[in-house]
Amino acid sequence: MDDLVPSALLESPLELIRQAGQDPAIYAEKAGLPVEALHTPHLLIKSSAVNRLLEVAAEELEERFFGLKASRTLGLDVTGNLWLLARTARTVGEELELLAENMALHTGLVSISISSENLAGKLITVDFYASATIKSMAARQHIRQVQVVEMFFGTIVSELRRSLGKGWQPDYVQFMHAAPDDMEPLRDVFGDRLFFNQDVNAVHITNEDFDKPNFRAPARAISEDGLALVKRESELRTVYNTTFVERVRRIIRALSDQEGCTAEVVAHELGLPARTLRYRLKQKNTSYQSIYNESRLELARHYLLHSELTISAIAERLHFTDTAAFSNFFKRQAGMTPRMFRSRTPALR
To answer: How many domains does the chain fold into?
Structure first.
């Protein structure tokens, strides 16, 4: 099953396609989107199709920064009630915390976590969902996530500038993909402190900025009615949209940059005994090990296509005992060695 997102996310990308003199319907068809998505803002569509649309458009229009350009007119209002609630937060930090607590349930495309990386500020880490059911190594548009990452980060920065000032920029930004040849468009939005080939996609903001008032909060308090509405919507989305398997997969992805990720750790995050986790996955005709392997394969493909990390560095990052173990794993899963995969499927930078 694929996570679903509102078709309102497409408004800005489709407008860019029109401005380029192209027919959005052709791009939608290539991405596997229903034609209704071009005209209906509240239609639920596959998140992987949104990602494909961005990547197809960037490639066909030869616009490396297509997603970044789309972020100029895309707002978090596409998340509906969640955005309305976040607007009433008392501080910038409170707004971000509300988004972090609820974003995955409202869009299906991303999940956000906030950590105190150091005494100077907070690290806003964003995990972008990619369907792990995709098996074709040749379908690069399915697994490349450069455009969606930069579009979402650009949107976040635009939203924060409403409270922190028109010229505000993050303390620094980390990208999992490799640096483009031309850095200026990214520097214009995010500043000079950009880091690529990283473990996570993340934005760092200072504690001073985190604690600043949210200027859109007229009552300087969270609306209880708004909070109840968001919680109710979240419950419905949990039941009808996010499957148990996808929740397990998302937790594994979120913890993958730590010291490995065992079934016991994931079960603890879900509030379940490990044996219950395994039993419920068996009922879904899968297993923890299968999902863990899919997630590691997904990350491996990403690093091979979109980073400049060596194969040995990727093996270490994904917690393999050595490069040979990683190569053997990748060959079993993908039908070719990591080196062959990287040489046969070059990615757009």
So the answer is: 2
